[in-house]
Specification:
This protein is mostly helical. The chain is built from 3 helices and 2 strands; from the N terminus they run αββαα. Helices cover 25% and strands 5% of the residues.
Length: 81
């Protein structure tokens, strides 16, 4: 995982139960609460990561840094479409 090398201490693909209450509520088009979405099985690469804004800033900072970052060589493969 990239979380530890990037200093992302509040990010995970599967949150511990104690942190799941930190997630924002999800609502449907009729503004009714619905269960949290779970992308781990079918679309993990498109949305399985749960993260804080602070951790995502660490991620963006690493992408915008110079080539001296330890994960720099891996970044091009993370943004290919």
């Amino acid at each position: 995982m990239v979380f530890k090398p990037l200093g992302m201490t509040d990010s995970a693909v599967q949150l511990p139960e104690v942190q799941s209450n930190h997630l924002l509520p999800v609502f449907n088009a009729k503004r009714k609460p619905v269960p949290q979405w779970d992308f781990r099985d079918t679309m993990a690469g498109a949305g399985a990561v749960c993260s804080t804004v602070s951790d995502m800033l660490h991620y963006m900072d690493a992408h915008l840094s110079d080539a001296d970052h330890s994960l720099y060589a891996a970044f091009p493969s993370t943004i290919r479409t």
